[in-house]
Amino acid sequence: MSHDIFSNIELAGHTLINRMAMAPMTRNRAPDNIATAMMAEYYAQRAGAGLIITEGAQVSEQAVGYPATPGIYTQAQLKGWKQVTDAVHEKGSRIFAQLWHCGRISHPDYHAGELPVAPSAIAAAGDAFTYEGLKPFVTPRALEAEEIAGIVDEYRHAAAFAIEAGFDGVEIHAANGYLIDQFIRDGSNRRTDRHGGSLENRTRLLMEIVAAVGGEIDHDKVGVRISPINAFNDMSDSDPQATFNHVAVSLSGLGLAYLHVVEVSMTGEASFDFDVGQLRERFDGIYIANGAYDQPRAQQTISSGDADMIAFGIPFLANPDLPERFRLNAELNEADQATFYGGDVHGYTDYPTLEA
Ligand code: PHB
């Protein structure tokens, strides 16, 4: 049976109103790492999406890597998020929290001078965003083998808090050069223990987190996001197709909510061939595609069955009523880059709807 982006889909025990997801986007408007009423309004404005995936929410203090980004590990943070989930549910949509650990893409400024952690002591090229502006990435401290179980447990704990805060599920952020991705790809993982080397070993942290989080909140409430060809945050892998085919196979058969794939590189640097169709074939659940989709390509991709849902980032940022605009073939608002990261309502909750 052929679907279109406006047809329903069952996910995590709910019937989503359409096959459009709002992609996770960091917006740096959470002072003290706590979600606010303004954030609740922003997400509620976008509840025309079948599924909203929040911006990354840190699983611990060690996970923090950007200014004014929300966490999901304290009671105050849980309360902050409750406003968001209530506002989105009131508008009839569903919302997953993205669980985030920045790993080496952090800075000692966030950790009282201590080094950020990573699979291996390899610095990323580039600069960290700190409260005092850009500072070069430092060489991180390689995690001790004995510390890894603690990180897995932080994800489990954050997932339990997410459910308590009213989320319909969680997305494990294994993309874009953050901690889990740093383990998966061999450009950043040179470990010689059971978390490095073979594909199975490099994928182990992800699988341990999936098992712990799934055990805590049920696997059907757990999605995973990967970005096989994204070079963002100085990422590389010697054989991306083999690496991520292995990830897709490993995540199959567990009854997960979905696999969410960033199909592009945010740096424009991925010139090698990568066939996302091989991930689609290997993963047995809902496949969410993301990366510069417009309406025609989204429709085509859904109706051909190449994906089950499409996640839109910047178009949702700039168009609170994106599904309605698609339905009417209406023009889209243009996104204002200058207000993406940080600030107030401007460029956040003041993008006009068609009606306005
Ligand atoms: C960013 O803040 O630029 C950012 C955060 C999380 C991502 C990608 C980009 O996954």
Short description:
With 356 residues, this protein is α/β, with parallel strands linked by helices.
Describe this structure in words.
The protein is 29% helix and 17% strand. By secondary structure, the chain is α/β, with parallel strands linked by helices. The protein has a single domain, classed as Alpha-Beta Barrel (TIM Barrel), CATH 3.20.20. The chain contains ten helices and 14 strands. Helix 6 (240-251) links the parallel strand 11 and strand 12 (258-262). An eight-stranded parallel β-barrel has the order 3-4-5-10-11-12-13-14, surrounded by five helices. Helix 1 packs parallel to helix 2 (75-90). The chain starts with 8 loop residues before the first strand and ends in a 29-residue tail after the last helix. The model has no long low-confidence stretch (mean pLDDT 97). Bound molecules: P-hydroxybenzoic acid. Residues 26, 56, 66, 175-176 line the site of P-hydroxybenzoic acid.
